Amino acid sequence: MAEVITMPRLSDTMTEGKVSKWHKKVGDSVKEGDVLAEIETDKAVQDFESEFNGTLLYIGVEEGGNAPVDSVLAIIGNAGEDVSGLLGGTVAPVAETVPAVQQTEAQTPAVTAEIPAGVEVITMPRLSDTMTEGKVAKWHKNVGDTVKEGDILAEIETDKAVQDFESEFNGTLLFAGVAEGSSTKVDDILAIIGPAGTDVSAIVAGGGKVAAPVVAEASQTAAPSVAAPVAAITTAGGRINISPLAKKMASEKGIDISTVKGSGDNGRIVKKDIENYQPSAAPAQTASTAVSAPAAQVAVNFVAGETTETPNSQMRNIIAKRLAESKFTAPHYYLMVEINMDKAIEARKELNSLPDTKVSFNDMVIKATALALRKHPQINSSWAGDKIIHHGNINVGVAVAVPDGLVVPVLKNTDFMTYNQISASVKDMASRAKTKALKANEMEGSTFSISNLGMFGIETFTSIINQPNSCILSVGAIIEKPVVKNGQIVVGNTMKLSLACDHRVVDGATGAQFLQTLRTYLESPLTMLL
After folding, report:
1. Which of 343, 471, 477, 492 could pair covalently with 454 via S-S, beta carbons 3.0-4.6 A apart?
2. What whole-number distance in Å separates Cα of residue 162 and Cα of residue 419?
3. Banded model confidence at residue 460, pLDDT cuts 50, 70, 90
4. Contact at 8 Å (CB) between 22 and 59?
5. Comparing C-alpha atoms, which of 396, 435, 434 is closest to residue 416?
6. Could you tell me if 35 and 49 are in contact, meaning their C-beta atoms sit under 8 angstroms apart?
7. Region 431-441: what's the mean pLDDT?
8. Catalytic, out of 28, 129, 187, 507
9. Residue 297 has pLDDT above 50, yes or no
10. Cα dihedral across residues 372, 373, 376, 379: positive or negative
11. Which of 23, 140, 332, 503 is catalytic?
12. Which long-range contacts (CB under 8 A, 24 or more apart) does 101-109 make?
């Protein structure tokens, strides 16, 4: 029986490994203790030895390539063993050795057949410039449903928002490639639409293409053949998505596969699910069913002191990835300044006394920031490896907290906007952000970002740069406190600002000069009219 070898965790901080060198190639014999490959971790390069005897049937990571811990590294088994069932039908078995004459007769080059007429393969779309994978938040159609052009197929959650995804075709939904609540990479199969009753199993197995079968009559008589497994695809008829090997193991162990939760692609049941199956861990008893459980059961799940787990949303995963990348790739430093807001408070009162005008302090900070960026273009720049990009437009991103994390709607050409325009745009986008109604293009193209926690009473804080921006401004609360004016201690109103800078782009003096200009605008609001 074939053994799946996964990328090992060779250090406590390792999340992925790089194959520096393979010492074996597909088809080679492998003995226990043989060095299969050299694995480069975040700390060192280590020899990785095989724990099994057999033949190397599959290599999951090319030499020089990276893969996450626990992803498939290799498969070892008996020569000629079919391992396609272990990888969702995507791996061809390694042929047994047969005489050269017979190989010549048997080996007919495989060709790619055309997708049947009327069948359309729909892939996960790229809905934002930074999107690498998408999550199906909700399906609006089920397999077997009729679909018309313009119908909403699904709601796709990107790293920035949830968007409706409409069909461009008419037909029947023949295959849904991503389970509701699951994610897949951009350009992977999302769905297949076509005439009702069309068999699309070959398209699914081929990753969106149809591989024509190889006719090899000579090999059938020369060497024993192994029946090709058929991927268990979930259909409208309720067929369970399970690999042939897992199905065989379940049958041998007397396991009811309807009670097994799959961990493979699209919820497919694979070998390890059968090996790790525990009868007591039936789906009806798992925490994941709490959403649909009776009220009494839900209450039990939240007993004081009980530890629970919440799966990360796609947004939370992307936020974590990007902030970590920013923090550990951009050399951050911080500049802080305290602003006298007395004149800003008076100016705001006068502005809001005008008809149909409602300006917030945040609006004033945004306006002053945009004007200061025009005077200090180096702040409005981005690091691009071997060059620095100086942006011609000033597009200020305003951080907005939402239930799943944080989004940053962008005010395009902010320096040309009036107070009323800034106020209306921020309110509109913040409101739609909380209902996941923002469009992807409304969260793209920022050149500078602002995060304001003043409304929560936070006096001062620092933020992580929202790359590819080179700076982010953190805005604290306006505090009434004693200050010194003309040698006298009086009551004043102050606000602290913190500027996080990427030292690759912005030097300390440049950041300080920007803050000086920003302070001038806020402490003397009339200067913004000059």
Report:
1. 477
2. 29
3. very high
4. yes
5. 396
6. yes
7. 84
8. 507
9. no
10. positive
11. 503
12. 102/218, 102/219, 102/222, 102/223, 103/219, 105/218, 105/219, 106/216, 106/217, 106/218, 106/219, 106/222, 107/216, 108/214, 108/215, 108/216
Instruction: List beta partners, residue 162.
Output: 157
Looking at residue 97, its pLDDT comes to 37
Q: Where in the chain are the domains?
A: 1-94, 112-211, 315-529
The sign one gets for the Cα dihedral 464, 466, 471, 477 is negative
Answer whether 1-94 and 112-211 agree in fold: yes
pLDDT of residue 527 exceeding 70: yes
Entry pTM: 0.53
Q: At 477, which helix (H) or strand (E)?
A: strand 471-485
Mean pLDDT on 88-112: 42
Handedness of CA 177, 180, 184, 187 (dihedral sign): positive
Q: What is the CATH number of domain 315-529?
A: 3.30.559.10
Question: What's the rounded Cα separation, in Å, for the pair 243 and 87?
Answer: 8
pLDDT over 90 at 458, yes or no: yes
Query: Residue 407 is encoded by which pair of tokens?
Result: 């989004």
Going from the C-alpha of 31 to that of each of 28, 36, 83, the distances in angstroms are: 10, 10, 19
Confidence tier at 239 by pLDDT (50, 70, 90): low
Is the separation of the CB atoms in 156 and 167 below 8 Å? Answer: no
Q: What is the helix (H) or strand (E) element at residue 21, kind and residue range?
A: strand 16-22
Of 476, 472, 474, whose CA–CA distance to 459 is shortest?
Answer: 476
Catalytic annotation present for 503: yes
Residue 253 has, within 13 A of its CA and on its CB side, a CA count of 18
Report, at the CATH architecture level, how domain 112-211 is classified.
Beta Barrel (2.40)
Q: Would you state the structure tokens that stand for residue 436, as one six-digit string? A: 């996941």
pLDDT confidence of residue 249: 77
Instruction: Return the pLDDT at 105.
Output: 39
By CB atoms closer than 10 A (0-12, 13-18, 19+), residue 423 is buried
Q: How confident is the model at residue 221 (pLDDT cuts 50, 70, 90)?
A: very low
With pLDDT > 90 as the criterion, what percentage of the chain qualifies?
42
What's the chain's length in residues? 530
Residue whose token pair is 């923002």: 438
Active-site annotation holds for 502: no
DSSP string, 120-136: EEEEPP--STT-SEEEE
Write the CB contacts of 187 (distance below 8 Å, at least 6 apart in sequence): 123, 124, 126
Residue 41 pLDDT > 60, yes or no?
yes
| Right CATH for 1-94 from 2.60.120.200, 2.40.50.100, 3.10.310.40, 3.90.950.20 | 2.40.50.100
Return the pLDDT at 392.
95
